[in-house]
Amino acid sequence: MGEQMEFGRVLIAGVFFSWVLCVGGANLPPCEFPAIYNFGDSNSDTGGISAAFEPIRAPYGEAFFHKPAGRDSDGRLIIDFIAERVQLPYLHAYLNSLGANFRHGANFATGGSTIRRQNETIFEYGISPFALDMQIVQFDQFKARTIEMYNQAKDPSEKDKLPRPEDFAKALYTFDIGQNDLSVGFRKMSFDQLRAAMPDIINQLGSAVQHLYQQGGRTFWIHNTGPIGCLPVNSFYLRNPEPGYLDQYGCVKGQNDMAMEFNRQLKDRIIKLRTELPEASITHVDVYTAKYSMISNAKNLGLADPLKVCCGYHVNYDHVWCGNKATINNTEVYGGSCKNPSVFISWDGVHYSQAANQFVADHTLNGSLADPPIPITQACHKQ
């Protein structure tokens, strides 16, 4: 309990410090975003891949939704905390055909999505068929059909579930994608080949932003990618790494170096986009620093070892993924949840826990790790 209180104190201190940094935006009125349109991968998927393929099963979702909720976590994702911060409902997945209400936006993210389209199926390595270009095509269709249906609707109750046509220009457009382009690259390419491919990957993300701008979007909140080398899955099959392969926190140094290179190029592209799209307000958000600071300070924050996983069975070289069953040494083993997910950074070895997502949200949404350094609630104001 004392450790959790300490974690809370550090969070509060960080938020206060961030507020001091962001006081320059204090005179700006808050933005009134009527909707959020999100593009991304499993870090921000609120049910897309679950709707399209096999649903995510228990114990996912247990900490907040008390049932699986289409999210690769025990609870909320950063995009959920974004919705809370701008006082909008949680986003429904565009691909969810039942019970969805799109009045306040739609989520086009799907688990396993990449920026650059991959020539493999989801059944091979879990890479989604809905790459960023497909998500943009889906948005275009969504917008066109929404406007058509809104204008044809005779009953106000029909209109209430649809975004107002004028809302598309006032909406918040969020991005969290690129991690899977790196993971595919690590699997298929040398570091030099991946580095050579990086400009094309970044340009495709830039093209998506340009397209949404042409469609009327004006406010963009773009996450960089996290320290992929710190995901516990990297150590699951690792035996006797060479000296220097891991950093002092057990992260794969070369993978984090590639993530930082991706982030450098992304930041440069965003600076150019501001010139190319003169009416846009584009915020670059450094989630890498938020995640790596949490991992490197885990002990001081009262958190478990960052390389330890809450959900799943991972003993020696036997692995049963979260929510699955397997037979090990003639015994059925279930990959269940740990007793206290709130002190874990990693939920399942690949995805973050709700507590970790909240930490990142608390350290980015206030603007302290954003460029320009402005809170998300004021992100519509061009700096």
Secondary-structure map:
Elements: H1 2-21, E1 36-40, H2 48-52, H3 78-85, E2 105-107, H4 122-125, H5 132-152, H6 156-159, H7 167-170, E3 172-176, H8 179-188, H9 191-214, E4 219-223, H10 233-236, H11 253-276, E5 281-285, H12 287-296, E6 312-315, E7 318-321, E8 325-328, E9 331-334, H13 354-362, E10 370-371
Parallel strand pairs: 1-2, 1-3, 3-4, 4-5
Antiparallel strand pairs: 5-10, 6-7, 8-9
Helix pairs in contact: 8-9, 9-11
Pfam families: Lipase_GDSL
Protein name: GDSL esterase/lipase At5g14450
Keywords: Glycoprotein, Hydrolase, Signal
Observed structural traits:
single chain, six-stranded mixed sheet, GDSL, SGNH_hydro_sf, hydrolase activity, acting on ester bonds, glycoprotein, disordered N terminus, 383 residues, alpha/beta, two-stranded antiparallel sheet, GDSL esterase/lipase At5g14450
Explain this structure to me?
- This is GDSL esterase/lipase At5g14450.
- Residues 1-25 form the signal peptide.
- Belongs to the 'GDSL' lipolytic enzyme family.
- Keywords: Glycoprotein, Hydrolase, Signal.
- One of its GO terms (molecular function) is hydrolase activity, acting on ester bonds.
- With 383 residues, this protein is α/β, with parallel strands linked by helices.
- It is 38% helix and 11% strand.
- It has 13 helices and ten strands.
- The protein has helices spanning 2-21, 48-52, 78-85, 122-125, 132-152, 156-159, 167-170, 179-188, 191-214, 233-236, 253-276, 287-296, 354-362; strands at residues 36-40, 105-107, 172-176, 219-223, 281-285, 312-315, 318-321, 325-328, 331-334, 370-371.
- The strands form three sheets. A six-stranded mixed sheet has the order 2-1-3-4-5-10, with helices on one face.
- A hairpin with a 2-residue loop joins strand 6 (312-315) and strand 7.
- Helix 8 (179-188) packs antiparallel against helix 9 (191-214) and helix 9 (191-214) packs parallel to helix 11.
- The longest helix has 24 residues, at 191-214.
- The model is unreliable at 1-24 (pLDDT under 50).
